[in-house]
Design a protein that fits this description.
Blueprint: H1 3-15, H2 26-34, H3 38-50, H4 58-70, H5 74-86, H6 94-105, H7 110-122, H8 130-142, H9 146-158, H10 166-178, H11 182-194, H12 202-213, H13 218-230, H14 238-250, H15 254-266, H16 274-286, H17 290-302, H18 310-321, H19 326-338, H20 346-357, H21 362-368
Helix pairs in contact: 1-5, 1-7, 2-3, 3-4, 4-5, 5-6, 6-7, 7-8, 8-9, 9-10, 10-11, 11-12, 12-13, 13-14, 14-15, 15-16, 16-17, 17-18, 18-19, 19-20, 20-21
């Protein structure tokens, strides 16, 4: 899990912990907080954090969270840990953040237990320890924490910190999914699709993908497109497939952009439009997606939707080939053999043919059986 996502989860969770909705005013909180009331200190901190009844002030929020945390207030300990982790209103210190998360987690604060699991999983403020990550995810998951349930399922999926167990992975993904956790829904759908840890059921897979897609999960949106394209768990409908590919592509999903390019190139579910296909291939290619880089190379080589440009074809083949795309490796070999967009270099041609052949590319396998000095005669 990326740290950006990590701190976003923390921030959202923290802001959801408390929203003043009763008659006490900020002045009341302040009076009680000054008298040493930990709960009032926490509430006052939240007011400063969220701008409820007072201007947002991160320094004041951090200060009051710290006062409440020092008195053992579990939610304040967690919140102060978040501030330390992000450097909000206080100097950033991941080690101290970890220590406050630990204090809160030991008081059975589920958010803190989940975050402590993340810290152990991602080596944030502590050495990486997958076993401790599982321990804390489990504590939070057993309290119904959906993010923890999802992450625990992921640990069982990979066997990270725990013995790999696909049935347990399904069980925890399901718990998260039933709480509306979009990635939990997506993971559960994927397992129904592939029959991993559960009996394969494409109808169930489609239904769970739909639930995740309704929440804007781009992975599930593309999956729905694939189900409509292939008639998996739903009647085949190429126009619907196109629409779902388009949704995912417009959200920036590289594979969906490549799929959409293919739809426009072939007229699958939409009127054929080669220039538009090129535009979508380019979007995916610029994100480093090898199949789109290969397709864009073909377009430049053939002059499909763009002016022919052998040098650009060569460059896009190269980008895809260097990422292991077998057909691009073969085409790169052809470019070197025939001087397409690059100086002829039979040795380099053989290098790329061999790479493609090692991936069982049929034409490349035939080429590597030819001696280098015979290539131009074949």
């Amino acid at each position: 899990m990326k740290n950006v996502l990590f701190v976003s989860v923390l921030l959202l969770s923290m802001q959801a912990m408390f929203t003043p909705a009763w008659a006490e005013t900020v002045a009341d909180y302040r009076k009680a907080a000054m008298a040493g009331d930990a709960e009032a200190q926490f509430k006052l901190a939240v007011c400063y954090a969220t701008g409820n009844g007072v201007a947002v002030n991160a320094i004041q929020a951090a200060s009051w969270y710290k006062k409440a945390a020092d008195q053992g207030h579990a939610k304040a300990q967690y919140a102060y840990g978040v501030y330390l982790l992000r450097g909000t209103g206080v100097k950033q210190d991941t080690q101290k953040a970890f220590e406050w998360f630990e204090k809160s987690a030991e008081q059975d604060e589920a958010d803190a237990q989940f975050v402590l699991g993340l810290c152990h999983a991602e080596a944030i403020g502590v050495e990486k320890n997958p076993h401790q990550a599982v321990l804390w995810y489990t504590k939070a998951a057993q309290q119904g924490h959906a993010d923890a349930q999802h992450n625990l399922g992921w640990c069982y999926h990979f066997g990270s910190g725990v013995k790999q167990d696909h049935v347990q992975a399904v069980a925890w993904f399901r718990k998260a999914a039933e709480q509306g956790h979009s990635m939990g829904q997506h993971r559960l759908a994927w397992r129904y699709e592939h029959g991993l840890g559960v009996t394969k059921d494409l109808v169930q897979a489609f239904e769970w993908y739909q639930r995740a897609a309704e929440q804007g999960n781009v992975l599930s949106i593309r999956a729905i497109a694939l189900f409509y394209r292939n008639g998996w768990g739903v009647d085949k409908d190429l126009e619907q497939a196109f629409e779902w590919f388009k949704k995912a592509a417009e959200m920036g999903h590289a594979a969906a952009q490549d799929n959409l390019g293919w739809c426009y190139e072939t007229g699958e579910g939409v009127d054929q439009d080669i220039p538009r296909a090129v535009r979508w291939y380019r979007k995916a290619a610029l994100q480093g997606y090898p199949p789109a880089q290969y397709s864009l190379g073909l377009c430049y080589e053939k002059g499909a939707g763009v002016d022919p440009d052998a040098a650009k074809a060569f460059e896009w083949y190269r980008k895809a080939a260097e990422q292991g795309h077998a057909s691009a490796q073969y085409n790169l070999g052809l470019c070197y053999e025939n001087g397409i967009g690059v100086d002829e270099d039979i040795r380099q041609a053989m290098v790329w043919y061999l790479k493609a052949a090692l991936q069982n590319h049929d034409q490349a396998c035939k080429r590597v059986q030819i001696r280098p000095n015979q290539l131009k005669q074949k």
